[in-house]
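Weekend entry, working from home. Most of the wet-lab plans are on hold until the incubator is repaired, so I used the time to fold the two sequences that have been sitting in the queue since the last round of cloning. Logging both here for the record. First:
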Amino acid sequence: CGQGLPAPGPAGEEAGGSRNRVELWVTPEGFRPPARPDVVRLIRSGCGAAGVAALGETLPRVTGDLRVAAEVLLGLGQALREGQQAHHSAGGTHAAGLFTATGELAVVAEDIGRHNALDKVIGYCLLRRIPLADKVLVTTGRASYEMALKAVRAGIPIVATISAPTSLAVQLAEDRELTLIGYLRGGRMNVYTHSRRVMT
């Protein structure tokens, strides 16, 4: 991005001199490649196509007994925003952060993709043997089924997002005993599943 020069002539002028422009021509045949009987294609959306019941038997239940005060949870959205260095300087990034039960930021990662930000946080902890069962995960993006699935696999007991969870994420969280919190902003939050971990 931004390494090349704009194309000369009308196209470059039309783009206002932008270096972030790509022109692509595809032949009609390119839209319908020939079918190959030896290749099976699986197409799924970003929020999962498999049912929770089918996956539930292979996933562990979240057994962490972490309990966090509601007052601490309510401050984590702002604490995550304060740790977003890339977002402050350029914008357009998602963040994932792990917090202790007292609200101390342990790890934060940013990326243009919410899934990548979460992968960075979990990977950082696994490589350094940082425990996850006593942490709260806070994200800026929508809590999809895959986001909840990654938290369950990592053994993170509480996931909170400043955005909304999907219905499939709520189903998975309920089934696997993950505490799922949405709309963590403005001094409010919605606790969707396993509220026993939230102390009021």
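Second, folded right after the first finished:
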Amino acid sequence: MKQMIVKKQNDSVRENNKTKNFDKIWKTLLLAASLSLLSAMPVFARGWCRGLSKNAWWYDLGNGNYYKSTWQWLDGNSDGIAECYRFDYNGWMAENTVTSDGYTVNQNGAWTVNNVVQTRGVSSENGIIKKELLGRINQYRIASGLKPLSESAGLSSIADTRARECSVLFSHTRPQGGSVLTEADVCGEILASNQDTPLKAFQAWQKSPGHNRLMLRDDFVRFGAGYYVDSRGNDYWVVLFSFYN
């Protein structure tokens, strides 16, 4: 009887060990599967990326898209000065060559003329355009008996991202899905495209009842503007509003 009890106890221990080992294996498999899923999820970060399949550079727009078959002015180091780069139909940046359309780019991919890198001021030009746009909205509010809104650098940064996204999908729905209204303190958004100047963008919104109502809401306190011109010369305008200080 004792032997049977011992045997049953030993069998029970072995079964428990098997169960524990199985649990460990199962948890390990689940963890591995979870890590695989996590590593498979796309994580988008805007900026220059070095290729894995090819030793070349491409530019991630931060929304699952990238530049291809285009020239693009880019301020990669955020110094307010943009250089011009050529991307082929696969999205790879041309470097240290003469492009198919006859322009020279250096070892860093920047367009050069007589060995001089061609540049364009980004922050100053865009900043002036956006300030004019916001200024026109505030003048309109004051003339309508409303308080002017405070400019928000945070909202303007988001608006700049939205302007670039609108070059991919001109919609209040973002290219990756969802709405900007779920981000930070954004409470309202107005969009325009191919208006050429801040005045024309403002006038287009003024003529639209829905957009006009947003510009004249008395409960907004802050706003920010975004502006972007794509490689085809199409311009995109965004203003974001917030109730919050």
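Plan for Monday: verify the second prediction. Residues 2-40 form the longest helix (39 residues).
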